[in-house]
Backbone:
């Protein structure tokens, strides 16, 4: 398999000792197996996330993302920008689309970028992509299945897609109401997807988990409850905010609702890293507050091939 | 900011729809709503909105400026984009709600104590300071939003969560001292200043 | 009947040869069916098979053919022979596909097949070769009544197709309501702006068309005859009547707007600045693209409110109960008149449900882009004054609100100009003022002045609109050769009326052409048979003249039924009605069915082999059974299915015959009846149900259980249900025992 190279936008949560640092660890292991080279955009900045609109408004928000795009064009010319974080992907992609559609906005943005000694050149050949898109479109399920050496046999997993990798852009060929890619990824890693899982695109509250914790936790409860109802032992997600919100508030929800939730929430890349032969640390499993014991067991076993 | 509000009231008189079209992100779309209500029914926080999106659109057309801009409603948006993908008229509803919230905020008439508004303010300050999120400062800032003693209380409530994050290496207890910083933070500050300038000019907010 | 020579042909294809004893069936055809020639063939519908039959027809003089193969609905091309009476014994869909292929069932399956062969031969023996109706006319001129957009279009389209047209308009100009519009709704991409009506051009095209003769200021004072031979009196307003002959008629008499004055609470008649949509068109024509001025004081209108559903979709019984379909788009168009002239004019459309189907959705969006405000609300009152106040309930915000406007436009609905309601008038002439008139605009005058026994105008369906869409066939009315189009048959806009009018023109042409060939019109299009009656047996009971769904039968001076064959749809409802059984068709009669019933071999009471007669409508029930067969859905081997043209043609003598012959059960399967009827002949199924409601007494008189006879509605989609109805009857018989009437 030829090496594939991308301009990489890791985002704030993927930084060392940040909330999704273990996501990053597992992505690195997964990419090593798939021979993907991620060229980090030098000195990238925050995308503004979903909450940035309120204080940031329109142009400042786009300016933040435009800086990243401009830096990528400058340092990683011709390479698609790949993000692992749903919000980073969404923010960058939205700016990219708006700038492509509005000459005025583009002109304003270029004026702003000049302040940082940057410029951007929109020829439309570079795309903003989520890591999941890279996996599905540039590799495909068959290719992704090949390196599996430790199939995740016997684990029932609920694929929690959430919002921002799914809407408003989503992954090509998937429906907004019932995207299947996480289930397919789960399946080719040898685990058993919980296909009837009916909260797979329910909102976890996003940033409002901070500002409106009660309302958000009611959402999170639905998401977890349904996973249990359909027999899942684990939840898998492509989004750092989803991962965190669904994982870290389980104790508080238990206290509030008298539930006994304790379900691990992992990233797709963690499943893949383990299936591809990584150990628990390489798969970032030590980063899960609720340990994914079944995955750790498999990671500890010798590879089949 | 209330000066700006007065200026806008004078400029648009009773035509709130026109004001929204001119000043709110994607506000041009408001007139295209066909009042089917799919947005309201699709919103995960729908029940908590005083005026769900469908109503907001109707209120804008009916010229209910204060009722809309002073509403907590738009601040309930979780940015899940469900309304956008389901709207049969393809209105960018999420963006319009963000735009309305931002506009009310700019005018200084958004509900002052709304937690999402306050958190958003905090967040933007956090990310623009160094260019990246400082998660520790953000959380601490959030807990102390309502004063010192409340902050301690909330901090204690959240302590197990925070400790869990620290233990698993997902929260840096030393980030108070720094972190979340771009080399080009200075450039970012300049850019944002410029961006604000242009936006104010475009929307006629410049004094 | 000496000249009947039956040839029976049994097919061995499609598995028939493997499942059935074909030789035995051939013997049955010969011995019991009295076939002069009976043959089997491996593959009857192929070239060789058809050639074999053809050779017999030519060399052996076979003139009645029995095809014992597949359903009569299959292979009609292969088995279509001219000048020969054809009957079909359905061995494939009727027998082997609905019976299990087992050793135990072989005997009863063979008995079933043998019965169908007997029935086929019996039917063929009583059929005659249908020849054309000798009394047919051949006039192909098309009369169009009404010179609005519908009538004009019909006239032009018929003329384009090469037919002579008479166009009669009661006013002094062509154009109708569309002619009075300023602009009409767009009919093409991008559906964003009002467009020219096109009426002046159309009128010019008509005036210069040599095939079209226009009568202005004229009405139809008499219509008599039948397709191919209508005679009409055209009376001028100024006096003087011309009699013309035509082959078919298109009724395009349009509509009147619902009377504004009936809506005083909405300001109707209370303020000159409250107008209906027609009134706004007049104002817009005066303004001609400039600022629209209001009637009261000539002030330029700066704000206008459109009130949708004014006196429409009303459930109080005071106003129109229905939606007129076009008014939402019309208000949108009229709001654009204002916005296009001056974007600063406030335009608000207050609606409860905005209905803009199809491309109207683009038009709606265009209006929104132009800044027309749409408010979902229910208007309760319009307060007159220099500043009109429209009081409404905002249905989204759930609060009372007031909109101020310089001008208010009420979207009142369409009231059909459909003439007199002949049902309300009891079929009697010259009855004025009808029950529905309260909802409509009052007194109605006949449009066609038909001399038919059943009344002067076309029958209505609902809300005063013509019954012009029976089953799947728009424009078809219950008066053969008379087609209805435009808003007289249902509310519609100009574009729909244009399409409607084009369709009606084609139907009228078809009717005239069919009539000229002496053939039936739709739905038995091409049928050469026609009804005949034995005058000496007739008791003048008038059931046929009353019950004919198509008003085809008048009465002559001696009060005998007078069949207007060209008006007849060949459903046979008259045949089913006739108590003395004197009405028949050459290829379909009391005997062709009666002898089939009698031909079935009824085993004795101790055989445990009941017989169930199924009389199935050939339009829906029979195809449903065929489709069940294609899906291999099985039903009782004791059923014997006889297709009938319509359940209305079922004469109760058949039921009597079956029961006295020892049948254990009888099922009648017809189409849905009633208001949402699916009957291809409108009233047939209903008539049958009515007649059968009285069969219980007959059964009791014969000491038979009432459960033995069942009448049911079966849709073409009932492919599961139709077989289960048969099976239920088999179970019932098992419960109550076999009929004691077997000999």
Residues:
């Amino acid at each position: 398999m030829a090496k594939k190279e991308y301009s990489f936008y890791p985002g704030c949560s993927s930084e060392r000792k940040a909330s999704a640092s273990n996501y990053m660890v597992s992505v690195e292991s997964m990419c090593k197996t798939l021979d993907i080279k991620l060229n980090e955009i030098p000195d990238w900045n925050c995308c503004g996330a979903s909450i940035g609109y309120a204080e940031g408004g329109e142009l400042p928000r786009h300016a933040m993302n435009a800086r990243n795009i401009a830096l990528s064009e400058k340092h990683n010319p011709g390479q698609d920008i790949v993000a692992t974080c749903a919000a980073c992907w969404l923010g960058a992609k939205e700016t990219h689309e708006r700038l492509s559609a509005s000459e005025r906005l583009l002109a304003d943005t270029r004026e702003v970028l000049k302040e940082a000694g940057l410029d951007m050149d929109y020829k439309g050949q570079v795309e903003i992509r989520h890591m999941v898109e890279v996996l599905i479109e540039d590799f495909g399920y068959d290719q992704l299945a090949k390196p599996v050496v430790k199939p995740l046999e016997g684990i029932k997993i609920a694929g929690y897609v959430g919002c921002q990798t799914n809407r408003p852009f989503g992954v090509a060929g998937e429906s907004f109401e019932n995207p299947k890619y996480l289930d397919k990824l789960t399946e080719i890693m040898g685990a058993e997807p919980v296909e009837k899982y009916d909260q797979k695109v329910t909102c976890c509250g996003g940033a409002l988990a901070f500002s409106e914790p009660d309302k958000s936790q009611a959402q999170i409860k639905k998401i977890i409850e349904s996973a249990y109802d359909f027999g899942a032992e684990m939840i898998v997600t492509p989004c750092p905010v989803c991962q965190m919100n669904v994982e870290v508030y389980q104790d508080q929800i238990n206290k509030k609702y008298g539930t006994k939730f304790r379900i691990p929430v992992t990233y797709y890349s963690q499943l893949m890293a383990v299936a591809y032969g990584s150990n628990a640390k390489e798969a970032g499993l030590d980063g899960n507050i609720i340990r994914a014991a079944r995955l750790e067991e498999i990671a500890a076993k010798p590879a089949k091939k | 900011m209330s000066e700006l509000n007065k200026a806008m009231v004078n400029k648009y008189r009773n035509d709130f729809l026109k004001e929204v079209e001119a000043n709110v992100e994607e506000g041009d779309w408001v007139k295209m709503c066909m009042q089917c209500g799919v947005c309201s029914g699709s919103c995960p926080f729908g029940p908590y909105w005083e005026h769900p999106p469908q109503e907001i659109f109707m209120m804008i057309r009916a010229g209910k400026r204060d009722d809309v801009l002073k509403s907590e409603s738009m601040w309930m948006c979780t940015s899940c984009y469900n309304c956008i993908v389901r709207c049969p008229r393809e209105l960018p509803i999420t963006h319009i709600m963000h735009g309305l919230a931002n506009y009310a905020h700019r005018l200084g008439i958004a509900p002052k104590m709304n937690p999402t508004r306050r958190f958003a303010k905090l967040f933007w300050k956090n990310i623009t300071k160094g260019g990246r999120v400082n998660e520790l400062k953000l959380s601490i800032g959030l807990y102390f939003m309502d004063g010192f003693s409340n902050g301690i209380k909330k901090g204690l409530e959240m302590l197990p969560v925070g400790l869990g994050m620290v233990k698993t290496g997902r929260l840096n207890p030393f980030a108070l001292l720094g972190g979340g910083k771009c080399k080009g933070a200075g450039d970012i500050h300049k850019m944002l200043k410029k961006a604000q300038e242009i936006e104010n000019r475009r929307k006629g907010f410049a004094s | 009947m000496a000249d009947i020579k039956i040839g029976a042909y049994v097919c061995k294809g499609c598995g028939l040869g493997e499942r059935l004893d074909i030789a035995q069936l051939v013997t049955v055809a010969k011995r019991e069916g009295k076939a002069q020639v009976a043959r089997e063939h491996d593959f009857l519908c192929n070239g060789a098979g058809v050639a074999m039959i053809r050779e017999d027809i030519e060399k052996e003089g076979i003139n009645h053919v029995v095809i014992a193969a597949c359903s009569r609905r299959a292979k009609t091309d292969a088995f279509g022979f001219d000048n020969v009476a054809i009957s079909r014994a359905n061995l494939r869909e009727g027998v082997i596909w609905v019976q299990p292929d087992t050793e135990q069932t072989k005997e009863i399956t063979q008995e079933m097949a043998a019965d169908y062969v007997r029935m086929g031969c019996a039917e063929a023996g009583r059929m005659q070769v249908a020849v054309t109706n000798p009394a047919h006319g051949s006039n192909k001129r098309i009369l169009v009544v009404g010179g609005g957009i519908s009538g004009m279009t019909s006239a032009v389209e018929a003329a384009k197709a090469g037919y002579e047209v008479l166009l009669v308009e009661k006013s002094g100009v062509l154009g109708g309501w569309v002619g009075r519009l300023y602009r009409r709704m767009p009919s093409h991409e991008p559906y964003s702006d009002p467009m020219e009506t096109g009426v002046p051009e159309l009128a010019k095209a008509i005036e210069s068309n040599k095939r079209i003769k226009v009568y202005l200021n004229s009405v139809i004072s008499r219509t008599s005859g039948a397709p191919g031979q209508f005679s009409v009196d055209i009376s001028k307003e100024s006096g003087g009547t011309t009699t013309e002959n035509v082959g078919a008629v298109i009724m395009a008499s349009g509509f009147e707007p619902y009377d504004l004055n009936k809506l005083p609470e909405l300001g109707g008649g209370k303020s000159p600045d409250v107008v209906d949509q027609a009134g706004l068109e007049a104002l817009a024509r005066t303004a001609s693209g400039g600022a629209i001025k209001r009637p009261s004081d000539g002030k330029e209108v700066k704000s206008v409110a459109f009130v949708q559903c004014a006196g429409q979709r009303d459930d109080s019984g005071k106003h129109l109960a229905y939606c007129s379909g076009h008014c939402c788009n019309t208000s949108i168009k009229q709001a654009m008149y204002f916005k296009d002239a001056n974007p600063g004019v406030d335009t608000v459309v207050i609606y409860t449900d905005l209905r803009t189907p199809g491309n109207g959705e683009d038009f709606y969006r265009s209006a929104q882009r132009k800044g027309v405000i749409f408010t979902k609300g229910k208007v309760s009152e319009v307060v007159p004054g220099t500043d009109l106040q429209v009081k409404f309930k905002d249905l989204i915000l759930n609060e009372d609100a007031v909109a101020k406007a310089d001008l208010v436009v009420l979207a009142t609905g369409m009231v059909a100009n459909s003439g007199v309601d002949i049902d309300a008038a009891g079929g009697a002439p010259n009855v004025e003022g009808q029950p529905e008139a309260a909802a409509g605009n009052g007194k109605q005058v006949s449009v066609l002045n038909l001399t038919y026994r059943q009344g002067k105008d076309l029958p209505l369906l609902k809300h005063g609109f013509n019954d012009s869409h029976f089953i799947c066939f728009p424009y078809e009315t219950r008066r053969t050769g008379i087609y209805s189009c435009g808003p007289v048959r249902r509310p519609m806009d100009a574009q729909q009326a244009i399409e409607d009018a084009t369709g009606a023109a084609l139907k009228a042409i078809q009717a005239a052409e069919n009539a000229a060939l002496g053939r039936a019109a739709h739905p038995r299009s091409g049928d050469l048979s026609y009804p005949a009656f034995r005058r000496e047996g007739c008791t003048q009971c008038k059931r046929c003249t009353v019950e004919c769904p198509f008003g085809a039968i008048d009465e002559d001076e001696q009060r005998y039924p007078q069949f207007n064959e060209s008006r007849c749809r060949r459903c046979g409802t008259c045949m089913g009605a006739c108590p003395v059984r004197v009405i028949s068709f050459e290829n379909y009669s009391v005997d062709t069915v009666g002898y089939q019933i009698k031909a079935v071999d009824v085993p004795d009471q101790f055989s445990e082999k009941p017989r169930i007669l199924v009389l199935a409508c050939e339009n829906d029930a029979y195809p449903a059974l065929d489709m069940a067969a294609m899906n291999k859905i099985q039903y009782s081997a004791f059923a014997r299915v006889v297709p009938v043209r319509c359940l209305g043609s079922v004469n109760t003598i058949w039921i009597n015959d079956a029961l006295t012959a020892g049948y254990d059960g009888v099922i009648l399967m017809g189409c849905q009846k009633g208001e949402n009827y699916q009957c291809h002949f409108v009233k047939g199924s209903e008539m049958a149900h009515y007649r059968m409601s009285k069969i219980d007494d007959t059964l009791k008189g014969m000491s038979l259980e009432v459960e033995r006879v069942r009448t049911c509605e079966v849709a073409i989609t009932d492919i599961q249900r139709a077989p289960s109805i048969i099976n239920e009857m088999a179970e019932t018989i098992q419960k109550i025992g076999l009929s004691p009437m077997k000999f």
Chain A has a mean pLDDT of 95. The longest strand of chain A covers residues 4-9.
